[in-house]
């Protein structure tokens, strides 16, 4: 059997553009000064969205993964980029969220009195664009060290977003986040070094064919996965997330919660699925599922107990991330059914995408609420739905996905995961999924109840909020609902480019 | 030589332990710097001179200035309550021990001979026109990583700048101590000419011998820092166009040449064979200046003075 190698495919250059275009914009802003930041960012949104859509179209029309060998230096010496169906879905999701959040931020900046070019605004545009490059690089990366660089880019773009407002407590939250993220990077890098020492390559495609049961690989994978878990904020490594995500300005919280923590989750998926030998993958999958279930239950309860809206949404993020980890044992596949053919694979991917859209919508809606009333204490928000009907609707529609109620992407995802758990005879995971849904219902309804309440003293907005600011959240929430119309079965697009990669799983 | 290596390892372990247990911050920092210098020596013994140069320049040089300045800034604020509890410290110690044990175990089980890409890199070297395989890895085979790493450095810098108060955004950092000690002022006048020559030399030989952009950039950054700290020339406003151009210039040239690869070579980040070496040298020159400016401004920190209007 000839080993599989990377070869540049038609349209492969699109992967380079997806990774590099936002970085070009960052450099352009640095060179031309803060005043042009917003204009450069808006132009990049259009271009980046077009690139993501072009990649998805190319994937559908060719039915094969896109590849690009950078500089024509063949791996393992050089670096390759590759996008299969799952990567394509991630790229499109990232583009949608970044553009919606960017438009929200642009409208919000317009409400402020200063002319632009200020500290917080310029930093936001630079970091948002850099973050986009970093995420795309993670989703199309095929080389463990290249992925490390992408993670570093992600960290250094995400951390300044946390303390944009410059208050002491947000700086503390940002520093704690930085510490967790850097320890995570260090562990990942140690693991990557061990893998190179043992196999002489960092290329994932080559590793998928070379990897065998051996102690060095087991240690390497354990280090890398633990490091990535610290970045993904899975229970019990979630302590940094709630203050960081709740303290950031709304558009920053939206991208941090919706997108940034998905990158390490995606990498764990690739390590477990493509690199780990089957037995190791099964053990890792079980352990990840236990942590995932604990995350769902513990952090849903924590979300229920929060007095502040943004902290509640932040805890809900840790809970929803838990669902992505119970996918591992459910999507374990078998000799005649590869993991990506299972319903749990589709369910996990849909959970990832619909959570991104719904969570971004929620944080933006919370941002509108804070903009209008000057605070986000849930107890004092009685009747806010009358003042901000669009935001309340966006919050409710996004809530459907978190609870797993039809019609919503979250419903399809959780229904597929639940079915998979029942079919496999895994009552504990099934019960966790159901309990997580009930708890999510409780914390979402707490807010909806406030929105619809008739308070004795009518709540008044501190300042008027333009309708178009509210529309960004609504658009994202509607997108999360629309994903609910995906049929309840393994989704073809997510399987593009996976066959031939199943060597680690061959019987 | 085995005796020397053993002594080196013992000394490294001793210094590492000292850094952890030393209660006085300033002594701990100075021990850490000594540790960095010795670690550089260890890399020389492992036949990795490029890594050794970087380790000494960053671990012994720039990090030293950064840590000592941070310590000096905190010294005036009174002793903070010890942040870590005893159980916390024990947990960190247990975690570190577990990681070290895992690493040691994994390294001992490596297959021998260890697989390596060194022959492949040496074989591909003529296509780049370079003589130093490390430079070829950084600027040809894995140029994408280098390009993105440079952007990471710039992001870190913008992140540091964003910590300034709103009123000072775009202003200049302040490095000069209230009273410049005599020796510092003297060094600030005497050392930079030599340092600049050494930096330029390191960049130039990097194409064919150990050295290169990052090491050269660090030396240049140290010289600029010395001049600023001695109060001979104040740090620039962060909005100054020349500073921004130098900072962004390296990665912009890199990207421009990378995109030209689509038209004139085998795609993104590929060089036409005849022009490979001059193009790589041009990129390295611009990157050296960018790295120097970025590192110096990173150590200088966020703005402390309002921008000149």
Indicate the low-confidence ranges of chain A by residue numbers: 502-507
Helix content of chain B: 55-70%
Helix content range of chain A: over 70%
How many angstroms separate the termini of chain B?
62 Å
* Major sheet description of chain A: 2 strands, antiparallel
Strand order of the largest sheet of chain A: 1-2
Q: Give the SSE order of chain B as H and E letters.
A: HHHHHHHHHHH
Overall structural class of chain A, as computed from helix and strand content, comes to mainly alpha
Mean pLDDT of chain B: 89
Task: Provide the fold topology.
The complex is a heterodimer of chains A (507) and B (309).
Chain A: H1 13-32, H2 37-62, E1 66-69, E2 80-83, H3 85-111, H4 119-140, H5 144-162, H6 168-199, H7 204-210, H8 215-232, H9 241-247, H10 250-260, H11 262-275, H12 278-304, H13 309-330, H14 343-373, H15 384-387, H16 389-403, H17 409-423, H18 427-452, H19 467-482
Antiparallel strand pairs in A: 1-2
Chain B: H1 2-21, H2 25-45, H3 49-75, H4 86-108, H5 118-124, H6 133-141, H7 143-161, H8 182-205, H9 213-229, H10 241-264, H11 276-300
Helix pairs in contact in B: 1-2, 2-3, 3-9, 6-7, 7-10, 7-11, 8-9, 9-11, 10-11
Task: Produce a short descriptive summary.
Chain A is an all-alpha fold and 507 residues long.
Describe the structure.
The complex is a heterodimer of chains A (507) and B (309). Chain A has 19 helices and two strands. With 507 residues, chain A is an all-alpha fold. Chain A has a domain at 294-507. Chain A has a two-stranded antiparallel ribbon. In chain A, helix 5 runs antiparallel to helix 6, helix 6 runs antiparallel to helix 8 and helix 9 (241-247) crosses helix 13. The longest helix of chain A is centred in the middle third of the chain and has 32 residues, at 168-199. The model of chain A is unreliable at 502-507 (pLDDT under 50). Chain B is an all-alpha fold and 309 residues long. Chain B has two domains: 1-73; 117-309, no CATH class. Chain B is globular, with a radius of gyration of 22 Å. The model of chain B has no long low-confidence stretch (mean pLDDT 89).
